[in-house]
Predict the structure.
Amino acid sequence: MASPGPRRAATLDDVRSRGTLNCGVNPGLTGFAAPDASGRWEGFDVDLCRAVAATIFGDPEKVTFTPLSGETRFTALAAGEVDMLARNSTWTFSRDTDLKLDFVAVNYYDGQGFLVPKALGVASAKDLDGATVCIQTGTTTELNLADFFRVNNITYEPVPIQNDAEGRQQYLAGACDTYTTDASGLAAARSTFETPDDHIILPEIISKEPLGPAVRHGDNQWADLVRWTFYALVAAEELGITQANVEEMAAAAGDNPEINRLLGTEDELGPMMGADISPQWAVNVIKAVGNYGEVFDRHLGPNTPLGIERGLNAQWTQGGLMYAPPFR
Amino acid sequence: MTIAQAGPPRQAFRLSQLLYDTRYRSLTIQVIALFLLAALIAYLIRNLVVNLHDLGKDFDFGFLNRRAGYDIAQTLIPYTNNDTHLRAAMVGIVNTLLVAGLGIVTATIVGILAGVLRLSKNWLVGRLMTVYVETFRNVPLLLWIILVYAVLSESTPAPAAFRGDEPEASKLFGLVAFTNRGTYFPSLVWGEGAGTLAIMLLLSILAALLWQGYARRRQAATGQPLPSLWVMVAILVLPVTVAFVLLGAPVSVEVPTVRPTGIARFQGGINVLNSLVALWVALTLYTGAFIAEIVRAGILAVSKGQTEAAFALGLRPGRTTRLVILPQALRVIVPPLISQYLNLIKNSSLAVAVGYPDVKATLGGVTMNQTGRELESILLLALFYLVVSLVISLVLNIYNRRISLKER
């Protein structure tokens, strides 16, 4: 008897025959994944999905976005409902081993912070004794929060919420004194407030939250494809390849052998990831979304309402942690 | 076998008889159906095993003994984030049972009142109850829960408003504080001698009940009513009050107050979460509307002759309802009422919409998500709801058998 359900072995073949990539994203987090006014998904994580589609099909629009809550995301991935997650998910030991996921890279180095109204008169997270805290349920932040308050010997009352929209609403209604989640998420939430200046993000970052795209255990070819698509974005920034100049640079082999290999003018790296992957895969990717820095600036950077500095997410050459392994 | 021998001469059994002989046909169909069902179940189980294996997952309840690591907003039994997932599940179970128990009691009261009043001859009262029943019955429960919760948290002040010499908000009767976090009630503090007082109270209740029984028996025997209510109140209040004063006020009331420094937060008293109130109120009004219809149907099922006979005997309308109609209506009411109670318990799992920490939110929410044990958690959840429903069903069926018409 044949068993229905997802085939584990060949996600790439499934995606190809389906003609579209199923990508699990946040149901609504400004800057990372949210539908814009016309209903088109936009954001930092959304662009990673588009980049993977560009690698496979040469067409960044062949993506079906599935909004997933914090509680359903891993189940949806494990059940084969989505092919990959690009959904502000923290890479942890137990998720990688026990939940049978593979985090293929870190696309955003984050940490958990606290958002408070200035009127609360709190300058440090350690002054939050007795606070009522809005917390997204089913996240690592829930566990970090419990740890932080226990270690500092202070108390709190949790108000569990389902998603960012509910969190913002509860926080603004004053149902909680502080809202805690990844600092990037707090910046995103604050950017949607009517008066963002009345709220501050406390200086303490109480955890490491390496956010990254995740795939199912056991399909190494698929994991490689997602991983190297992401690193192509990072490497492109380091090598100075942008959305604007990629066509020109890909037209003929240049002086830099790594650029040549990446853009397929000297070597053919694409087919090594999968038989049908175009040698110009990286060109398609960068043409579609730009390099890592461009994606960051477009959705999260100082010129957006979120106004997040690169910080840890700068290139390693700029004092950050973004470091693509060599393309050869 | 003697009968068979008396019939036509016995022929050898042929296979076609399985299909064409009515004596065997139903058996054949049942065997085939059973086989198909078994095959389907086997297929599903095999599918599960294969898929779990493909995912590299095993079937193991060991995760229940691991440290939970998360906090729960309402814990009626002791719990810290250092306890196990099993303990967290127990906390959730207690919370589910709390809201279900509260809901069943109030929904029954609301339902009986609304059902009786809907039949009222008073036009306004009757129409009002119709409006209540139709509005609550025909709008999804989830919307009611969210609506009540939104009203509670948007229309009430934050704890900070209760702070200071001239606070913006004030407590109801100086005792109860309604805030956007929850409602804070005063609590009782038991001091020395409180045990004596409690025993006094129990004795008073016993004495009052004895008096009531005596008054009833006397009225039944002689027809002369005794002043039952006032005497009962006196028996209940006087000795306990005297004892309270003599023992030097062993029980005191602790009124919740906002602490003067730090983040505004109430201390003392009992905190009832807004999510609990929202869930409770919505479950009560929603299920109450269904129960009202069941009660109305039960009352209408009692023939009009019964009412007329009671009136002819000189019973007033209130007593007619209480002594003649309702006891007979109960026989019709109880079986569908059981379904409503079971619905209420299962509907309480909508708690997740307002963040009330019921068993669906702990075991079926955070625990499931943190440990990745979807199958095990869901099976345990299903088992819990199944057991609770079966127990309620059993108890009420026993009750139903007691009140049902005894035919001799």
Notes: Chain A touches chain B through 47 residues (CB under 8 Å).
